[in-house]
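Reminder to self: tokens first, then the designed residues, so the page reads top to bottom the way the pipeline ran.
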């Protein structure tokens, strides 16, 4: 079975949720002009960007505004929407939360970023999530991750071991570490024998230049599609039959010995 996906690689207005909603809506219109894809994915923190010091003011209260907006877009276009992530305020806490909607506009899952990136001071302004990134859309087993998560192979393997076949990544990955972005994502695809669909942002904010280069990678580690640095709608087709064929060819999941992975005990 084949599925068409689109990564919506946009520049994000620093600390301006209203403008960012306009940009997302416009980019989605562009993505479906010729043919509506099966899946659309947005970048990380698309509603606010990395305006962390003002999140207390500009984060979306319980994600209510974003959920209504995104649900309507998904339903109107009959598309599964992996809606990147938003700054979501709950009481005095703010999380970096991925929202996932099916074709009917139903919210099927929320995943809050597990690994906070101290280099960009996320731990001072955000609360880490605790839940799994696993979800199902169109009968397809998927998992969602956010940016820094890709540096933790054990976290992504946990999801692949529990059935995930397509790993979606939303990010605001900086340009100076573009080589890491590409290398890590290719490695995650190879070791998990899964498709990677990774949507990064483009442009810059007052402190960072972002890399763009959204990627779609097959379970063998081949880059199927790659964007440049600028704003772009990246389209690709996933042939899901490749997953079973590759996992049969090199049966990594059958050969795992997880009983030895939890804690290494020194043996004589």
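Designed residues (268 positions):
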């Amino acid at each position: 079975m084949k599925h068409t996906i689109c990564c919506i690689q946009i520049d994000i207005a620093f600390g301006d949720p209203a403008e960012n909603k306009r940009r997302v809506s416009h980019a989605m219109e562009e993505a479906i002009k010729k043919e509506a894809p099966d899946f659309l994915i947005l970048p990380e923190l698309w509603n606010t960007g990395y305006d962390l010091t003002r999140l207390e003011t500009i984060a979306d209260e319980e994600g209510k505004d974003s959920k209504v907006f995104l649900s309507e877009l998904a339903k109107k276009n009959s598309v599964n929407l992996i809606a990147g992530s938003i700054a979501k305020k709950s009481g005095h806490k703010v999380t970096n939360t991925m929202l996932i909607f099916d074709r009917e506009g139903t919210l099927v899952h929320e995943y809050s970023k597990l690994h906070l990136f101290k280099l960009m001071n996320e731990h001072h302004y955000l609360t880490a999530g605790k839940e799994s990134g696993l979800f199902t859309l169109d009968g397809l087993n998927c998992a969602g991750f956010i940016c820094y998560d890709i540096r933790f192979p054990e976290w992504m393997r946990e999801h692949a071991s529990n059935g995930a076949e397509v790993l979606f990544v939303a990010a605001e990955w900086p340009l100076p570490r573009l080589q890491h972005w590409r290398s890590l994502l290719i490695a995650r695809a190879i070791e998990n024998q899964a498709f990677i669909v990774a949507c990064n942002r483009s442009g810059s904010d007052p402190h960072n230049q972002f890399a763009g280069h959204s990627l779609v990678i097959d379970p063998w580690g081949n880059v199927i599609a790659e964007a440049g640095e600028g704003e772009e709608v990246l389209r690709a087709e996933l042939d899901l039959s490749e997953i079973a064929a590759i996992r049969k060819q090199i049966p990594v999941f059958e050969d795992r010995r997880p009983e030895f992975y939890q804690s290494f005990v020194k043996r004589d």
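The chain has eight helices and 13 strands.
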